[in-house]
Amino acid sequence: MNGSHHDSPPPPIPDVGVPSDLAGPADGAGALTDTGADGRRWLILGVISMAQLMVVLDATIVNIALPSAQRALGFSTADRQWVVTAYALAFGGLLLVGGRLSDLLGRKRAFIAGLAGFAVASAIGGAAPDFAILVAARAVQGAFGALLAPSALALLTTTFADPRERGRALGIFTAITGAGGAIGLLLGGVLTEYLSWRWCLYVNLFFAAVAMTGAIPLLARQQRSRGVAFDAPGSLLAVGGLTAIVYGFSEASTAGWGGGPTIGLIAGGVALLAAFVFVEHRAARPLLPLAVVTDRLRGAAYLGALISGIGIIGMFLLLTYYFQGILGFTPLRAGLAFLPFIAGVVIGSNIVSNVALGRLGPKVVVPVGLLLAAAGVAWLTRIGPHGTYGYDVAPGLLLTGLGMSCAFVTAFSLGPVGTRPADTGVAASMVNSSNQIGFSLGAALLNTIAADAATTYLATHHAAASLAAATVHGDVTAFAFLAALFSAGAIVTGLLHPRKAAISSRLTGAQAPAVQPAPSA
Q1: How far apart are CA 304 and CA 325, in angstroms?
Q2: pLDDT at residue 79, rounded to an integer
Q3: In CA terms, which of 71, 138, 268, 305 is 20 to 30 Å from 89?
Q4: What is the pLDDT of residue 513?
Q5: Cα torsion for 180, 185, 188, 189, to the nearest 10°?
Q6: What dihedral do alpha carbons 334, 338, 340, 346 form, nearest 10°?
Q7: Is the pLDDT of residue 505 over 60?
Q8: In angstroms, rounded to a whole number, what is the distance separating the alpha carbons of residues 326 and 293?
Q9: In angstroms, rounded to a whole number, what is the distance separating the alpha carbons of residues 471 and 447?
């Protein structure tokens, strides 16, 4: 992929690890660019971070609760992934739409509306009497999360006018985003064990209330962005295409990969996305200007975020059931079992943001990270019905956390680089969108691969097979696939990312971008 002539060249940036495109609001309506010595901008960061944590951890918090929710509501193992997928698909599929709506509504209005809608959907999901209402509530959560997340990132970048402070703020924001999924597993374990699985949804009322209490008085009212229109055809085609593909992957667990429903849905989804590209290429004001994703630097960053999403959510889903169903862990112990992954994310994020990205560049950092993640999930293929956590699981989680941090820290740092000011919000949304689409694909794909392998194992081993052995065989097969996916991703991103000298030339015209150290999470 090559850079497009539609991209305007970015001006030189000072000695920070934040793209110059994020230096201020494109429409001239900053949230709070000069707060004086009272530190209100850091309170705003706290408000924005609280909202971001709520959105990110909700992608995983119900994972730990799934076995309990499945027993309470009686849904099947084949359907369980929809509790995760409905949220991730709505979130990822609507993020670009949410970014445009935040421009149309004004970012403060969009932020508060997203918080309120997310809270209401969480309350409905927590009280859900059956599977259908739970899945519908999760989808509505994802839709409001897609409105909330782009406005949160835009508010952060316009609040911090000083580039060095913005670097520190983005470091905190990225660490929260990276660790939020694993924090959701921990919190889900505590709530499920000591209260109920329903509190994994009710807890969002607390997050939303705290964030809204701070947002209303602290955030300055912003004007709507000028010259922004809503691209309805592009929005419908993008959402329809992504939904069809993910639904096709999930159908493979029952209809088979060669079944009519599977092939039809996936082929239809691909056709809708092809139509989306056609429409966007000709639209006067497209939902996603194609120059945003066809640039090598940004496109490779988005691909890394997509692969990370597939791996993280698939691994979390499979290990959650392995911990509770095979090793007999309580929900709390299952949540604590993901601590090595959190440690890997925190360590890796600091190494990448403080040292590696500035010195080595993404052409080295991202492929090395994906290879580390491949080694981590390959280690997880050692699990067995009578496996040990300390030897068979923990090292793999640590390696995977280290590797994943390389991909998504790079994506958040470089995803918006080099875009026109009018497209900066969409480019930033693409990072979250790629990651969340990966979540939805990963949940459907890995669950289907594991279920297929387990079914085949039971059919071939007949009476000699135990359900536990079949389940573990399915998990091992899915982890092996994931290791291959990460390895392929390392090769592709290594080829796509331009050399460090080319990136330095684009960003500064002379010198390599130094990365502002991020605080330890």
Answers
A1: 31
A2: 77
A3: 71
A4: 36
A5: -140
A6: -150
A7: no
A8: 42
A9: 11
- CB distance 296 to 496 below 8 Å: yes
* CA dist., res. 152 & res. 31, Å (int): 11
Structure tokens at 131: 């599977």
Note the pLDDT tens digit of each residue in 358-414.
778 888 888 999 999 999 999 999 988 888 888 899 999 999 989 988 887 787 777
Report the distance separating Cα 106 and Cα 475, nearest Å: 45
Q: Which residue has the tokens 């597939």?
A: 310
Q: How far is CA 249 from CA 51, 163, 466, in A?
A: 31, 43, 26
Yes or no: say if 82 and 135 are a contact pair by the CB < 8 Å rule. yes
Measured at the alpha carbon of residue 268, what is the angle toward residues 264 and 274, in degrees to the nearest 5? 150
Contact yes or no for 512/504 (Cβ under 8 A)? yes
Closest of 287, 48, 234 to residue 151, by C-alpha: 48
What is the DSSP code string of 447-462? HHHHHHHHHHHHHHHG
Question: Do 168 and 514 contact (CB within 8 A), yes or no?
Answer: no
**What does the block give as tokens for 26?**
């494109």
Q: Using CA of residue 348, residue 93, residue 112, residue 413, what is the dihedral sign?
A: positive
| H or E, element range at 28 | none
Q: Which of 108, 304, 89, 67 is nearest to 192 (CA)?
A: 67
Cβ atoms of residues 234 and 279 within 8 Å: yes
Q: Helix, strand, coil shares of the chain as percentages rounded to 5? A: 75, 0, 25
> How far is it, in rounded angstroms, from Cα 129 to Cα 53?
27
Spatial distance between the Cα atoms of 29 and 32, rounded to a whole number of angstroms: 9
pLDDT tens-digit map of 99-124: 778 777 777 888 899 999 999 999 99
pLDDT at 227: 57
Angle between helix axes 362-380 and 500-508 (nearest 10 degrees) is 130
By the 8 A CB rule, do 107 and 156 touch?
Answer: no
CB 273 within 8 A of CB 242: yes
The count of C-alpha atoms lying within 13 angstroms of the C-alpha of 146, restricted to the half-sphere facing its C-beta, is 30
28, 286 contact by CB (below 8 A): no
195-201 long-range Cβ contacts below 8 angstroms, 24+ apart? 196/68, 197/62, 197/65, 197/66, 197/68, 197/69, 197/72, 198/126, 198/127, 199/126, 200/61, 200/62, 200/64, 200/65, 200/126, 201/62, 201/122, 201/123, 201/125, 201/126, 201/137
SS3 letters across 333-387? HHHHCCHHHHHHHHHHHHHHHHHHHHHHCHHHHHHHHHHHHHHHHHHHCCCCCCC
Query: Looking only at Cα atoms, what is the longest distance across the chain?
Result: 73
